[in-house]
Structure formats: structure tokens, C-alpha cells
């Protein structure tokens, strides 16, 4: 199998192993075929990269393998296993479903989690817009939050534990663990693939300084989503959240085809209200005892932004 950046060739002594090489013949990684069932037309592979490679090369390798399996071998479903510390963005780009996580797997004398990404033939050939969502301006970058950002999110919440406490639900100690953050991002990614939510990390100079989440996305006659957000205590008052909200609202009203965005703030959260008003949101009312925040049912102001 030959592409523009890589070639894939079978290891002759091991019929179920395939080497990924660049155009200079340097080995970049390897596919291990764990299951190849012609009756059920299902295949499972483990992919291992020897080092961090150019994403376009890795994406081409996955694409070549998928085409070989779907077209030449008539497979209907393919699942890949990949280690937690390797790049999973290519699977997001190609519209794979995150089907599960195998925890505490022994890999080269180290316990790791393995992600299972699956895709069927129809899903692959009918995939639409890339899932590699990156929104940016001169100051910040918004990246789609996938499980590879678990450590970033954990660091963010640990740094801002006291800062965020008055504005968020009560958190137990498990929340401040890598396992918890990974699970939350896995759940969020699956919601994204199902079209019911989308979450972004807000990055400044490659540091995660905030997050923006649009949940409860409803299409049909409503076309509405509910937006929540937070920002690092050290980056407040610099206009970054306003910029993030404006970048996201443009996406929401174009690619996501929403008609309305809704956001809520605590009655006394003036800073958050100023962000929304600066981004064109209008106050539409007050909802009594709306959310259970920091141990109490709290009243919230409701804001909405309508697509014009």
C-alpha cells in the first residue's frame, strides 16, 4: 500500500503485522491484525507508533489501511486499539466512534489504557466535515476536547479548584484525578459524535486556560444549545472569554446550524454577565432555584443569542 507520505508493507515472517514506513524507508510504526473475520466481515487492529510522527503521515497510514480493508477485503466494520499516550486526533478527524476503553493493560511492562475506535464502511465513505475542529484568532485557539487532553484538564481544575468552587457543582476528590477527567472527556467525545454536545479547550500559547461547552444541542424546530464556560483565574479580565464565545457562536450558527444559544449565570456573577452582553446575548429572565451550585439551589439569570 503506497501513499504520498507513507508505505505499508506486510512483515513477511509475520503475516498479521504491517510496517508503516516513510518515503526514506524509515519505520514509523506498525499495525498488528488482532482479528480478521471474513464471515462477519469484521477486523480489529492495534496500531503502535515508534515516536511522535507528522499527523498527516499517520492519518494517511490509517486511511490506506481502511481502504485496503473496506475495498479489497470487503470488511464492513473496523476497530483500532491505540495506547492512551499516542495521538488520537486522526481518529477524531476520520469520524471514528470511541467505543470503549480498556484500562490497566500491560504494555511493555507498564500499565496503560487502550482506546477502542471503531468505524463501519458506510460511516467512513459518507463522512462529512472533518472533526478536526480548531477555531482561532490572533490571541487564542479553541481545540475540540478529546481524551488526549485529560492531563491538561486535570491541571486546569487543580489550579482553579478554589476559584471555580462558587460557580460549579460540588466536586468530590475523584473529580481531581486523571481517570475522572479522561472519563468525562470520553463521555463528551461520544456526545459530540452523537451531535448532542461539543466541548472546546481554550488555549493561550499552548496552555489550556479555559473551556467552553455547548450541551443539550437540539435540532429540529428548536435548533438550540446551552453554553457553559470557565476561565483560569490568572487569565480573567483580558477579554479571552469574549473572544472564545464569539468564535464559538460563529461556528454554532454556521456549521452546527443552530438558531439559538442559551447561557445562564448566577444572579451575582456580574463578570460572566458582562461577557455575554458583550457578545450580543440578551437577558430574557430569571429562573428560580435553577441549578444546584456549590451545595445550594441557586437562582440564575437566563441569556439568549439569536441567529439573525
From TrEMBL:
<comment type="similarity">
    <text>Belongs to the acetyltransferase family. RimJ subfamily.</text>
</comment>
<keyword id="KW-0012">Acyltransferase</keyword>
<dbReference type="GO" id="GO:0008999">
    <property type="term" value="F:protein-N-terminal-alanine acetyltransferase activity"/>
</dbReference>
<dbReference type="GO" id="GO:0005737">
    <property type="term" value="C:cytoplasm"/>
</dbReference>
<dbReference type="InterPro" id="IPR000182">
    <property type="entry name" value="GNAT_dom"/>
</dbReference>
<protein>
    <submittedName>
        <fullName>Ribosomal-protein-alanine N-acetyltransferase</fullName>
        <ecNumber>2.3.1.128</ecNumber>
    </submittedName>
</protein>
<dbReference type="InterPro" id="IPR016181">
    <property type="entry name" value="Acyl_CoA_acyltransferase"/>
</dbReference>
<feature type="domain" description="N-acetyltransferase">
    <location>
        <begin position="154"/>
        <end position="299"/>
    </location>
</feature>
<dbReference type="Pfam" id="PF13302">
    <property type="entry name" value="Acetyltransf_3"/>
</dbReference>
<dbReference type="InterPro" id="IPR051531">
    <property type="entry name" value="N-acetyltransferase"/>
</dbReference>
<keyword id="KW-0808">Transferase</keyword>
Amino acid at each position: 500500500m503506497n501513499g504520498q507520505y507513507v508505505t505499508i508493507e506486510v512483515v513477511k515472517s509475520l503475516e498479521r503485522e504491517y510496517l508503516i514506513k516513510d518515503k526514506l524507508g524509515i519505520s514509523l510504526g506498525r499495525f498488528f491484525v488482532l482479528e480478521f473475520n471474513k464471515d462477519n466481515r469484521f477486523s480489529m487492529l492495534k496500531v503502535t507508533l515508534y515516536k511522535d510522527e507528522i499527523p498527516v503521515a499517520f492519518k494517511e497510514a490509517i486511511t490506506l489501511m481502511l481502504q485496503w480493508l473496506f475495498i479489497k477485503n470487503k470488511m464492513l466494520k473496523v476497530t483500532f486499539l491505540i495506547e492512551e499516550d499516542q495521538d488520537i486526533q486522526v481518529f477524531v478527524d476520520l469520524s471514528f466512534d470511541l467505543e470503549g476503553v480498556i484500562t490497566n493493560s500491560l504494555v511493555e511492562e507498564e500499565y496503560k489504557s487502550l482506546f477502542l475506535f471503531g468505524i463501519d464502511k458506510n460511516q467512513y465513505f459518507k463522512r462529512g466535515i472533518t472533526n478536526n475542529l480548531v477555531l482561532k484568532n490572533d490571541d487564542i485557539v479553541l481545540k475540540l476536547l478529546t481524551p488526549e487532553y485529560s492531563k491538561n484538564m486535570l491541571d486546569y481544575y487543580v489550579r482553579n479548584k478554589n476559584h471555580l468552587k462558587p460557580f460549579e457543582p460540588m466536586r468530590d476528590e475523584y473529580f481531581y484525578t486523571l481517570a475522572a477527567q479522561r472519563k468525562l472527556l470520553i463521555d463528551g467525545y461520544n456526545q459530540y459524535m452523537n451531535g448532542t454536545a461539543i466541548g472546546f479547550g481554550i488555549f493561550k500559547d499552548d496552555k489550556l486556560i479555559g473551556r467552553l461547552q455547548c450541551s443539550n444541542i437540539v435540532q429540529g424546530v428548536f435548533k438550540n444549545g446551552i453554553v457553559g464556560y470557565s476561565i483560569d483565574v490568572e487569565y480573567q479580565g483580558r477579554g479571552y472569554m469574549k473572544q472564545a464565545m464569539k468564535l464559538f457562536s460563529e461556528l454554532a450558527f454556521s456549521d452546527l446550524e443552530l438558531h439559538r444559544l442559551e447561557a445562564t449565570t448566577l444572579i451575582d456573577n456580574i463578570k460572566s454577565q458582562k461577557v455575554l452582553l458583550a457578545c450580543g446575548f440578551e437577558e430574557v429572565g430569571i429562573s428560580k432555584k435553577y441549578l444546584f451550585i456549590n451545595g445550594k439551589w441557586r437562582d440564575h439569570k437566563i441569556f439568549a443569542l439569536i441567529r439573525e
